[in-house]
Amino acid sequence: MSAVPENAPDHCPGTDSDAAGKADACQGCPNQSICSVLPKGPDPAVEEIKQKLKNVKHKVLVLSGKGGVGKSTFTAHLAHALGAHENSQIGVLDVDICGPSLPRIMGVDGETVHQSGSGWSPVYVTDNVSMMSVGFLLGSPEDAVIWRGAKKSGLIKQFLRDVDWEDLDFLVVDTPPGTSDEHLSLVQFLDGAGIDGAIIVTTPQEVALADVRKEISFCRKVSLPVVGVVENMGDFICPHCHKSSTIFPPTSGGAVKMAESQGVNFLGTLPLDPRIARCCDEGKNFIEELDGTPAVVAFKDIVNKIVDFCVTAKKNREQETGESMMEI
Ligand code: SF4
Fold it and tell me: Where is [4Fe-4S] cluster 1 bound in this sequence (predicted)?
């Protein structure tokens, strides 16, 4: 992978260089704390993680340029939708270390992680959807996590290497907004195991789309394929009269136009439906609760496109490596 992050200064020596974190260019760089401790040269954890995740067929990251666009809601319900398929096994990894909201959204806040002989056991949300989050390791949901890059990187390594994920069809990873230590760590640690791609969640306003362009640029710099862009909080469709109203006007053409100009897939728009927020507050699955609504119809269509992309990505990996993986 290319190893010059989007937010690095001009003369960045590269995050895998021996000088990473120590070069003159690194002084004042926001990534210095993590670059100075990340192992240089081949990190043995990359191979360990590759072995640990060898029975995980698909790995996808969920990104957003900004906070508050519904990324964690999307992640949780992507897992629920994938878990609705018969015999599927889905894992969710929450690496939004400073703002872990997935336990609440998935209705498992207050659960704790158990240690077994083969590692940390993830928390089961349903019979076939399991999850790991820093939220399970905190004494209270109100506890603030104030960690520097090195500690975050260490926890992400543990989540990937030491959690007993077993055989999964999909591992869906929720990341913090923007491009930060967590993203770099994920891309580096999953270098051997392979990532199918990144899904980028946004809202229609230009202020959110501007940050999505940076997110796409990050993906390109670290050679992370972009599955596509999801536009959340599209038009509000009244559940009573079914009339549509635009709440957040797409002043610059919205995510469709932005995706077209950036050469990435546009996966679809999710309408604004306040019942989704209520389901998330109550830890309920809106795909089941609001079945048949425009939001759920649009969501399922987006999930089908993501599955198609990942199946194709897996086939391409098999052809490149000559390895044959089990079919989904
Ligand atoms: S700290 Fe890391 S990202 Fe920043 S300039 Fe140095 S090597 Fe590049």
Answer: 12, 26, 29, 35
